[in-house]
Amino acid sequence: MAKIKAESTRWVYEYPAVDKLSSVPELILLGYDRFHEASPLNDHQHERSYEFVFVESGKVTWEVDGHLYASHTGQFFHTRPGEWHRARLSFIEPCSIWWMIIADPAENPGWLSLQDEDRIEIHKQLQQLPRVVFVNSRVREPFAKLRSIIDNNESLASCRVRHYVLDILLQMMNPSSIRQIPMDLKVAMNQLTALIEAAPETRWSNRELAAEVGVSESHFYRLFHDIHGQSPANYIDRLRMDRACQLLRQEGANVTTVAMDLGYKTSQHFATVFKKYIGLSPSQWRGFS
User: Fold this and answer.
1) Do 4 and 151 form a contact (C-beta atoms < 8 A)?
2) Cβ atoms 101, 50 nearer than 8 A
3) How far apart are CA 94 and CA 259, in angstroms?
4) 161 φ, ψ to 5°?
5) CATH architecture under which domain 5-173 falls
6) Block mean pLDDT (10 aa), the chain, length 289
7) Whole-angstrom distance, CA of residue 89 vs CA of residue 181
8) Does this UniProt record's set of keywords contain Transcription (predicted)?
């Protein structure tokens, strides 16, 4: 029998780790991970099952069939049965994620104890689901409930697990609309984002960024996080690392020069930040790419 694996930043349930859930084979894997720095996540697939990943915090870029999909705080990414996928460059960025692997409803009569009509309808909607979906932050609750039921071997476990798995799927298939931002403010934020992206080496303070938009520092921080799913500092660091990857590909590129060009005072600090987000040192990346 498989065991529940739990560490300070990782928790995994694998069917059928809990006897009370032996009647819920549809939930193949369920887990939580917190990555403090870029970590390996290579090509893999799940035959006859879907994988759903909810980004609780941070940003993750995924690769499926050569296409890149960026997901950030408050978004779901998913793959369909049999699709090969991995984190970009085979390293998942610093983030916190919930994830679950669910058997394909199309191949499993009685799936989650649903009638065939509902089971087939869910299959159809999953086939049409966008690769990345924004959901309400409430989706954390059913994930936390699932973990509690499994860890504590609670009563009516199989019934409640089915309920919360369906709750998560229904939230993905009927996502909440993003909080509306006034058009003039949205335009100002888009212009600021373009300004930041054009010169990622610039050292901005939150106060300076807020002044560009014409709002308070606290209001700006909330707006930025709503739009980009991360803090301004993390967003800018990731931009610098993307630019660094481009520069390091150039023939004759020098790590120290790239560090200085991107506004870092020392190549050592630059290398530390680079490895945190990319998973390799600048020199390793240059050889890898």
Assistant:
1) yes
2) yes
3) 21
4) -65, -45
5) Sandwich (2.60)
6) 54 88 95 94 96 95 94 95 94 95 96 97 96 90 96 92 97 77 89 94 94 94 87 93 92 91 94 92 83
7) 34
8) yes
Class of domain 183-288: mainly alpha
Q: Which two tokens stand for residue 157?
A: 């476990």
**CATH 1.10.10.60 spans which residues of the chain?**
183-288
Tell me where in the chain the CATH 2.60.120.10 domain(s) lie. 5-173
Sequence-separated contacts (24+) of 204-213 with Cβ below 8 Å: 204/232, 204/236, 206/232, 212/188, 213/185, 213/188, 213/189
Would residue 285 be called left, alpha or beta, if left means φ above 0 and alpha means ψ between -120 and 50 degrees?
alpha
User: What's the pTM value of the predicted model, to 2 decimals?
Assistant: 0.86
